[in-house]
């Protein structure tokens, strides 16, 4: 699903104009980014939590030339899904697998 798909879905479900839905989706994303930049943790019950993690400085390698490159320390965004989200994803995939047509059994033993 892309951002445009998400905007369309919000527009359809809430019965708003696409422009109003775009403002809502953009506001949510902007709020998440602003909170992560300031070092806050975002927790959405039943969905998951966003936070940043610190990566240490390291020495990397340029894959093209093989030269050593200093990679500076940085913060990276991290998402941890909630137990409910994990269960929903696994339940839906399990249903899809069990709903798939089973291969026909081959001929039984000859008598």
Q: Outline of this structure?
A:
The chain has 111 residues and is α+β, with helices and mostly antiparallel strands.
Number of separate domains: 2
CATH topology value of the largest domain: HU Protein, Chain A
Secondary-structure element string: HHEEEEEH
Distance from N terminus to C terminus (CA atoms, Å) equals 54 Å
Indicate the overall shape.
elongated
Helix content: 40-55%
Mean pLDDT comes to: 87
Number of strands: 5
Q: Enumerate the spans where pLDDT stays under 50 for 5 or more consecutive residues.
A: none
Structural key phrases:
111 residues, alpha+beta, HU Protein, Chain A, 2 domains, 3-stranded antiparallel β-sheet, two-stranded antiparallel sheet, 3 helices, 5 strands, 44% helix, elongated
Secondary-structure topology with pairs:
Elements: H1 3-14, H2 18-37, E1 42-44, E2 48-55, E3 58-61, E4 68-71, E5 74-81, H3 83-99
Helix pairs in contact: 1-2
Write up this protein.
- With 111 residues, the protein is α+β, with helices and mostly antiparallel strands.
- The chain folds into two domains: 1-40; 48-98, IHF-like DNA-binding proteins (HU Protein, Chain A, Irregular).
- Helix content is 44%, strand content 24%.
- The protein has helices at residues 3-14, 18-37, 83-99; strands at 42-44, 48-55, 58-61, 68-71, 74-81.
- Strands 1-2-5 form a three-stranded antiparallel sheet. The chain has a two-stranded antiparallel ribbon with strand order 3-4.
- The radius of gyration is 23 Å and the shape is elongated.
- The mean pLDDT is 87.
